[in-house]
Amino acid sequence: MTMKAILLDRDDTLNEDPGYLNDPQKVVLKPGALQGLQKLKQAGYEFFVMTNQSGVARGLISEQQLVSVNERISLLLSHGGLKIRKFYVCPHGEPITCECRKPRPGLFLQFFREFKANPDACYAIGDKLRDIEAAESSGVKGILLANRETVQSTMAPKNLVHTARDLQDAADYILATERG
Ligand SMILES: [Zn+2]
After folding, report:
1. Which residue among 30, 73, 78, 161 is least packed, with the fewest CB closer than 10 Å?
2. Residues 102-128: pLDDT tens digits?
3. What is the dotted CATH code of the domain comprising 3-179?
4. Active site includes 166?
């Protein structure tokens, strides 16, 4: 059976974003995150995180802090019976010289190299257009959590299929689409 996967942005999608989050004690999940992911889990989806962490390159987040924050996110999700299969991280900064900083597609390409998943059965979810754009060349549909960035149709990536308030709203859309 092919894997169904939700490829999640991290900061301001899964958890609140205080900016260069480097303290695990400051991790707070976003409203609707647990509920939304629980619905998707029941429908057979697995979860992955795709995150830009330029704070590492800037010296604002140490490698150990990055790991500790991700572990804290995993712990909070585990209280709701949820698991992130893998965190894909771009630790690089600007100017962009790597292939993995979103909107570049590297994190998504790495995911598809490592896991057998059908792009048609995957969704990229994030609060920025670059989270969606990074998934476009992999053929993954995108859902934008539009709390900050206004989508203008002229600049929207072609794979953007929906704009949602939060992860619960995004989950409702995905499940409604599955039912047809
Ligand atoms: Zn990178």
Report:
1. 78
2. 999 999 999 999 998 999 999 999 999
3. 3.40.50.1000
4. no
Cα 96 to middle of ligand 1, angstroms = 8
Name the active-site residue from 11, 12, 127, 131: 11
Does 23 participate in catalysis according to the annotation?
no
pTM, full prediction: 0.95
- Do 24 and 68 form a contact (C-beta atoms < 8 A)? yes
